[in-house]
Amino acid sequence: MAAQRQMRKTRIVCISDTHGQTPKLPKGDVLIHAGDLTNQGGFEELQKTAAWLEKADFEAKIVVAGNHDITLDAPFFREYGSSRPYPRPQDPDQCRKLFTESKSITYLENEAATIYLTDSQGPYTSFKVFGSPSTPKVSNWAFQYTPSEAPKLWSAIPPDTDIVVTHTPPKGHRDKATKDNRVGCEFLLNALHRVRPILAVCGHIHEARGVECVRWNDFLTSSRNGGLVKDVQGWEDPGAGEGNKKQSLVNLSVKGGRRLGNQGRLTCGGGTACGGQPDVPEILQPVPVLKSTSRPAVDNEARASGGTFEYQGSSGVDDIELREGDVDDIERKETVVINAAFLGPRIDRKTTHMNKPIVVDVDLPTWS
């Protein structure tokens, strides 16, 4: 029988693609920003955003850059930055220090960190997070990669990662652009199938903002028929609609009634508490990745009703009784994909609307 461990509800606020905006954020334990902090990555833009993030009242703040944050990609900026209309010369090293030297921001570039929430009034939980600013190459933007570079990039996600934060969405999941094509990364989808994190938070495609729960095929089934995804649940935003004051909530906690088929890492090791930057970020070596070029099993822009998830196929979920506190380890079967784009789609270079941050309640293991 698997060892039992303490689980506590942890509130994670997800946002992406703020592009220089500094919206009011709902309360939570952890803040995740999935990139495009600015429009062009100028120092003043970044300084404004960094100050907003540092003032935000969260125990942990996980931040990745995006393709618009040009000066944070120093090699790219030094080669192409002169073509951008900055009002004054930019120093990428100074721009990066706004985040890499912050005492309250955990800034990740293709690396992982283990976060320990230490506030005596908080949940006292722990999780491992991997963050990447990278997106598939389109035009000439920062932090981009070619198809030949993708396998090595995404194979660096550790197998015990609980939360994956990427600017790009995975192929077929919250990646449907206005022109009705899916522009996410299939190599990232392969990596998510291999790792099966609890959450995969992304942005980049403004019009694909939303949430869905992916139930994975097991590795044997995937190797036989090439299909990574068993089925998908859609989500209806309870905070949608003009004048609606409700939060855009995704309740994955046991008390919330939606049992997630994924309890994260099987063990929780000790370590130094992480406040802001991890003492020694884990720069990870690539590990083998399951290769597949298959498309997801269903159309993943599925609709749902009632503000909860609804399966678009058979779930095969075992009937397991869980309660908050002591929870048996559960095999990683599901990942909730969240595109948290704050700005809506742009038409004629104008933003159509702004979205609420997406709030996630999820049970995570205590670390002490």
Automatic annotation (TrEMBL):
GO terms for molecular function: hydrolase activity. Residues 11-207 form the Calcineurin-like phosphoesterase domain. It comes from the Eukaryota. Pfam families: Metallophos. This is Metallo-dependent phosphatase.
